[in-house]
Write a structure and sequence with these properties.
about 150 residues; mainly alpha; Four Helix Bundle (Hemerythrin (Met), subunit A); 5 helices; binds fe (ii) ion
């Protein structure tokens, strides 16, 4: 797959996980409804963030029109990291956890929407097929090394 196809597939995968991740009702204990889904989402985010920040964003940063979008995107990533870190420190059954989870889900959805509507179309317009293929190969190698 080329770079934008990989990013699109990752985004779809994460959006479907986000829809499924919910906290249990406060009275029922201290768990996510399905903790494995939350773990899968955090792992998918970790690998996806790495391929964007180490392969995709550096390639896009070289274009004047895309540089500010990349800057914003990195800021979004740090916000998402911070929300994940915060969520891991608070009691899962608390109302605060529920709010943080909602915030996290909103941030991820908005961030993905921005990338889909802005950065990815620019990448398609400015990078040729060859470059997109080469970036895709780099992403696949990095995904494999980080998944192991
Ligand atoms: Fe991103
Ligand atoms: Fe992304």
């Amino acid at each position: 797959m080329n770079a934008t196809e990989i990013l699109n597939a990752d985004h779809e995968h994460m959006l479907s996980l986000i829809d499924e991740v919910e906290l249990a009702e406060p009275e029922s204990g201290v768990v996510f409804r399905d903790p494995a889904k939350f773990d899968r989402l955090t792992e998918a985010l970790r690998v996806h963030t790495a391929i964007e920040e180490r392969v995709f964003y550096p390639a896009m940063r070289t274009f004047d029109g895309a540089a500010p979008l990349v800057f914003e995107a990195c800021r979004d990533h740090r916000r998402i990291d911070a929300l994940l870190a915060h969520l891991s420190t608070i009691r899962r059954s608390s109302g605060r956890a529920l709010n943080r989870l909602r915030e996290l889900k909103d941030h991820i959805r908005e961030h993905i929407k921005d990338e889909q509507e802005q950065l990815i179309p620019i990448a398609r317009a400015l990078l040729g097929d060859k470059a997109l293929q080469a970036l895709g190969q780099k992403m696949e190698r990095l995904t494999q090394s980080r998944a192991g």
